[in-house]
Amino acid sequence: MEENKTNSKFKFPTEIVELPSKGLLYPKDSPLSSGKVEMKYMTAKEEDILTNQNYISQGIVFDKLIQSLIVSKVDYNDLLIGDKNALMIASRVLGYGKDYKFRATNNTTGIINDYEVDLSTLKDKYLNPKNIKTEGVNEFEFTLPTSKTLVKYKLLTHRDESAIDKEIKGLQKINPDSNPSISTRLKHMIISIDGNSDKKDIREFVD
User: Fold this and answer.
1) d(Cα 160, Cα 172) in Å, to the nearest integer?
2) Contact present, 118 and 98 (Cβ < 8 Å)
3) Distance between CA atoms of residues 170 and 85, nearest Å
4) pLDDT tens-place string over residues 84-131
5) DSSP 3-state assignment of 196?
6) Rounded to the nearest 5°, which phi and psi values hold at 37?
7) Does pLDDT of 1 surpass 50?
8) d(CA 157, CA 189)
9) Core-most of 60, 91, 151, 165, by most CB within 10 Å?
10) Are 111 and 105 in contact (CB under 8 A)?
11) Quick one: pLDDT band at residue 7, thresholds 50, 70, 90?
12) Residue 148: left if φ>0, alpha if ψ -120 to 50, beta else—which one?
C-alpha cells in the first residue's frame, strides 16, 4: 500500500511596514529600495527566540526576533538603524498588540507612575528627499561651523552597529575605564574630511 505524502505550507497573516527612510538611501537593486518590508505575526517560534538565554546574554535577541518575522527577501545587515527601530516597534505590535504598559519613576518627586502608550499612534520621522544629495546613495554633507571643514557622512546600518559594538568592547578590554562610544560611532559614520576618505586620517581627525 502506497503512503500518501502531502506537502502542506502554513501561511501566516502578514503586514506591510513602511520604512522611515522610504527606501531612498538603498541602492535601486536592493529590495529595501521599495521602502516597505513585509512582516508576519508572531508564533511560538518567536516566543522561543525571546526566551533563548544564549541570544539574551549576547544581546542579539531582538535582532533574531525581527529577522524571524521579516518575510521580504532582504539583507538584515543592510537595514538603516532608523528603519530597524521601526521594524522593532512593528514586531511588538504584531506580537502583543498596540497597547504598551510600563512603569516609570518621576525624577523630581520619586513617585512611580503607571503608563499606557498606544504604539499605533507613534509617528515615524520620515526622511526628507530634499536632504538627499543622490537618491540611492547613503551620503550627506555638513560644514563644521568653526573650522569650515566639509564632512561627508552616512547613516549607520545594522552592519555598522555590529562593527561598532565589537570595536568598543575591544577598546574597553584594553582600558576598562574608557567610554569610546561617541568617537567610535563618528569614525564609522564619517566618509570623508574635505574630500579625504583615508580611514586613518578620519580616525585621527575624530580623535
Assistant:
1) 18
2) yes
3) 26
4) 999 999 999 888 889 989 999 988 898 999 999 999 888 888 888 888
5) strand
6) -135, 135
7) no
8) 10
9) 91
10) yes
11) very low
12) left
